[in-house]
Amino acid sequence: MQIEIAEFGKMSQSGNSLLKLIQNNDLPILDLLVREAVQNSLDAGISVEGHDSVYVDIGIKNIDVPNFARHLDGITDLLINKFGASPHKAIYIEDANTTGLTGSLDFKNSPNGNIFKLIYGISMAQDTPGAGGSWGLGKTVYFRTGIGLVVYYSHILNDDGQYEHRLAVTLVENEKLSDTIIPKTYGKVPSGIAWWGQRVAPDSHDTIPITDEVMIRDILKSFSLEPFEGERLGTKIIIPFIDEQQLLIKHEINSGENKPWESNAADYIRVAIQRWYAPRLANKKYMYGKYLDGHVNGERLEKDDFLPLFLELQMMYNAAVIGSKTNRYFVNDIQIRNYFEHNKVNNAGRVAYKKFTKKELDMLAPFNGPSPFTCVNEKNPLGEQNAPLMAYARRPGMIVNYETDGEWCKGLGATEEHEYLVAIFVPNSNTKLLNPDNDVVDLEAYLRKSEMADHTSWTDIIIKNKPLDIVEKIRSQVRRKIKASYENKEEVKEKQGMNILARNVGKMLLPPTGFGRRASSRNHAGGTKPPANKGRSRGNSFTIISQRYLDTGALEVLFQLKLAKNISAFTIELFIASEGGKISAADWESEDSVGTPFPAQITRISFPDTVGLFGRSISQKSDSKVLHAVSIEKKDEPVECTGILEFTCMDPHVQVEMLMKPEGSVDNG
User: Fold this and answer.
1) 511-565 confidence digits (pLDDT tens)
2) Is the peptide bond before 366 cis (omega within 30 degrees of 0)?
3) CB-based contacts of 336: which residues, under 8 Å, 6+ apart?
4) Cβ-based burial of 524 (10 A; exposed 0-12, middle 13-18, buried ≥19)
5) Which residue intervals make up region (Disordered) (predicted)?
6) Same domain assignment for residues 484 and 503
């Protein structure tokens, strides 16, 4: 591949200035890389039909330095001398079900093509509806991840309807340093920018991407990567010569907490994808387009791989987008007056929130998982108490930022050491502005324009010479709704007959490798006798005596039942406990709620000491065929007996409740 060295001229960028364009010092480099790379891939998948997801894979590969270097005219010997004696690694970012780097090979014929915007241009506006930002500024993180070298490979359908492979290489470096890689030209000021490809013409200095499939295959082989085959379209970005330890910043945010993902780059990337794309990752309910089919080193990120906080954030995001009532979280409409075409109660969006216990977030033994603050690399500013944790995201599904203080959290107050208030705001992106500008017609465009180049915050902007305060009003409304919910929430007494059972938690400790893969183990815990929790009504009672885990993993509950003569039948039913109350199987499986099979199932119920007192029993199954309740007829005489109920719980993050409801002259018990 032949070299093209950018000439330093009027209004031109230098390598040094490019590297400083988006010098974000708040986020680690791998977080910036994940945010930028995944968003570019999602944007490239918007217009591709026939797929419900965008495939993204980020991983680490070894480099065959001599084979790679021999393709780069002008720096071959330097690369081999500098890096050839020891093993080196590269980060690759691969996407599929995307458009790829389309446009004319010669950018002068197609300055708006994707290939020019990503490889040769800088600060190019992103004009695709629903896209995440702009081309050019964010991509400078690629140059900062390694030594400045970036390989771009793409398989596209070109303007002639033919499949075509394309590959180009870019180098951006600080031209002011003494150990630069780009060859210096006598009498010319070094620019710190170079490209490799094929000459546009024999007498031209300009280069364009190569299309020689044999050469492309050989270059990719240097990184143990294969080209796209058949009709599979997509892009691979390769960043060679990374220093893995330099990329792994050790966060001393909350001392003493376990952070196994900081031991190697692949594990860090696995968590970073969850951290920033929890709303869209493996989320088939994502409503604004295609969901993210994320992979690390070729291994798919499933929901079972998520840290508990990020799984909860995804479900909260879904609840906020749908806006239906849920017993799992609080969901409130956010309304802003005088700025939008209509005054619907949710014209600005919705906020979903909940106070989570340490137990719900796997923070207790045997898991000893990290706190929400550690998961998102934020310091808890309140020390022994816990600050609120606020997240916000717009339509592309990337969380813009996590806040623990400042305007999003002001006045919310702290929670006690054992619980965490977590919230996420999702705007109503389609809400039209009352006085739009040419390129800012709705709330989505307003928030998009308000974001910084690295998309880490929302700030209010000026439209038609008028400063607006939409973001400020949204933050104020969010705070007010959350504060009101907890200030006005009355202590709800447990209904008679309700017994909160210990959740089914016998999971193994995380193994030292393969972090993020949940163990699928059985419980072997011994029985414990909780305090008696009685419910009475006119001579009826239902009392838990003891409970123990069986070798099968089921929970066996021994209870005492007392029913008056006039009770003709009774039902014992399982529920899931939540911040807003108990969740029935029907509510849980609703598309407007969790939308998955009810996680607790009755496996046996018996009354060893009764003969002839009970009639037939009727099993009640959910739409997903989960046995969650049993109704039993009773003879016309009083009953006082013990019973045994066994159930299994398939979700280690929930608490199961039992309710006995008598039928007859009373309607609860």
Assistant:
1) 333 343 333 332 323 333 343 334 444 578 888 888 888 878 788 999 888 888 8
2) yes
3) 347, 348, 470, 473, 474, 477
4) exposed
5) 516-539
6) no
- Name 93's bridge partners: 58, 237
HSE-CB at 179 with a 13 A cutoff on CA atoms is: 6
- Distance, in Å, from the CA atom of 336 to the CA atom of 348, rounded to the nearest integer, reads 6
How many CB atoms are closer than 10 A to CB 532?
Answer: 11
Tokens encoding 286: 């994502």
Q: What is the CATH number of the domain that holds 143?
A: 3.30.565
Q: Which tokens go with 80?
A: 């081999």
Q: For residues 508 and 475, state if they share a domain.
A: no
Phi, psi of 585, rounded to the nearest 5 degrees = -60, -40
* Model confidence pLDDT, tens digit, residues 84-127: 989 999 999 999 999 999 988 887 776 677 888 888 876 444 45
pTM of the full predicted structure? 0.75
**Is pLDDT at 385 greater than 50 in this prediction?**
yes
* Domain boundaries, position 221: 2-247
Judging by DSSP bridges, how do beta strands 291-296 and 53-62 pair with one another?
parallel
Buried b (16+ CB within 10 A) or exposed e, 212-250: eeeebeebbebbebebbeeeebbbbbbbbbbeeeebbee
Question: How far apart are the C-alpha atoms of 318 and 365, rounded to whole Å?
Answer: 30
Amino acid 577: pLDDT: 82
492 or 276, which is more confident? 276
Q: What is d(CA 276, CA 42) in angstroms, rounded to the nearest whole number?
A: 13
Instruction: Assess whether 11 and 115 both reside in one domain.
Output: yes
